[in-house]
């Protein structure tokens, strides 16, 4: 339903009311008419609130949806395992990991707009008890930083923490947001936070900084899936693999050409 139609309904319901009541009624009606989008996965249906074009997820079978990430979650997480989804966006992979209600997920998403949609999606799918969502960014040091936003809408990608440079270079900034950036090693010390068995890392070019702040936790995880493209592939790969190797993890090279081809998988004692 369009904004003009909602406004018309609101006017009918609030004849003779003051301006504040009219605005509140319009807001309630607009919220109630928000659409949802459903995708079908091998684990069941997942529902998503549509807050913007970017908040509508891809078909899980398309290459753009990173089918290799779905496969990794499906084949790697054992019952009772905890996944840390670093760069969760609106929660596609967090929801998929938790849908069977046998795993816990900690989701980090720094964008306030995407974080709001992420929480709505968690509730929409009845997964409040299984997913903890935090409006934090991962970082090399725990600090207060700016999120430089190429796109301020929910579900947007290619924004950047601390600079206007993402994995593909400089971009035009259309907004800023202050955000707590936290070392994953520090996050793991917070009471109530479950330590990860697996980590998904997709943060638009800031993967190296996050890995540099996660050396302790990397020595304990079973696997980590990292997006490797742009600056990570062309400049940061040697340092990324040095950190990963020092933590006792080895690459499963079979994953290099799976699906989107953007992710690399590292395992501990994979047989």
The radius of gyration over CA amounts to 20 Å
| Total number of strands | 15
Mean pLDDT: 88
Main-sheet strand order equals 5-4-3-12-13-15-14
Topology as H/E string? HHEEHEHEHEEEEEEEHEHHEHEE
Strand content: 15-25%
CATH homologous superfamily classification: Vaccinia Virus protein VP39
General description of the model:
- It is built from 9 helices and 15 strands.
- α1 packs across α2.
- By secondary structure, it is an alpha/beta fold.
Question: What would you say about this model in short?
Answer:
The protein is of the alpha/beta class. The protein has helices at residues 3-13, 19-32, 67-76, 92-98, 112-124, 184-187, 207-212, 215-218, 231-246, and strands at 36-41, 44-49, 82-86, 104-108, 131-134, 136-138, 143-149, 160-161, 165-166, 169-170, 175-182, 198-201, 223-227, 250-251, 263-267.
Write the layout of secondary structure elements.
Blueprint: H1 3-13, H2 19-32, E1 36-41, E2 44-49, H3 67-76, E3 82-86, H4 92-98, E4 104-108, H5 112-124, E5 131-134, E6 136-138, E7 143-149, E8 160-161, E9 165-166, E10 169-170, E11 175-182, H6 184-187, E12 198-201, H7 207-212, H8 215-218, E13 223-227, H9 231-246, E14 250-251, E15 263-267
Parallel strand pairs: 3-4, 3-12, 4-5, 6-11, 12-13
Antiparallel strand pairs: 1-2, 7-8, 7-11, 9-10, 13-15, 14-15
Keywords, please?
7-stranded mixed beta sheet; 9 helices; single chain; 24% strand; 271 residues; alpha/beta; Rossmann fold; 4-stranded mixed beta sheet; globular; 31% helix
């Amino acid at each position: 339903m369009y904004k003009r139609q909602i406004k018309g309904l609101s006017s009918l319901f609030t004849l003779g009311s003051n301006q504040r009541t009219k605005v509140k009624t319009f807001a309630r009606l607009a919220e109630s008419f928000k659409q949802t989008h459903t995708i079908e996965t091998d684990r069941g249906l997942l529902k998503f609130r549509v807050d913007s074009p970017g908040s509508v997820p891809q078909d899980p079978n398309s290459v753009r949806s990173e089918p290799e990430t779905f496969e990794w979650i499906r084949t790697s997480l054992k019952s009772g395992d905890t996944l840390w989804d670093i760069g969760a966006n609106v929660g596609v992979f967090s929801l998929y990991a938790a849908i069977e209600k046998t795993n816990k997920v900690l989701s980090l998403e720094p964008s306030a707009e995407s974080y709001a949609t992420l929480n709505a999606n968690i509730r929409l799918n009845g997964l409040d008890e299984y997913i903890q969502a935090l409006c934090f960014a991962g970082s090399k040091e725990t600090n207060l930083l700016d999120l430089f936003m190429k796109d301020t809408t929910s579900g947007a990608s290619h924004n950047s923490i601390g600079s206007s440079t993402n994995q593909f270079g400089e971009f035009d900034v259309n907004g800023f947001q202050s955000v707590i950036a936290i070392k994953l090693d520090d996050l793991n010390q917070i009471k109530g936070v479950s330590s990860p068995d697996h980590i998904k890392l997709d943060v638009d070019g800031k993967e190296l900084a996050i890995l540099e702040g996660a050396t302790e936790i990397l020595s304990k995880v079973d696997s980590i899936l990292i997006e490797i493209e742009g600056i990570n592939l062309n400049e940061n790969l040697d340092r990324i693999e040095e950190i990963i190797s020092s933590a006792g993890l080895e690459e499963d090279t079979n994953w290099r050409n799976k699906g989107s081809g953007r992710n690399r998988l590292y395992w501990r004692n994979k047989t």
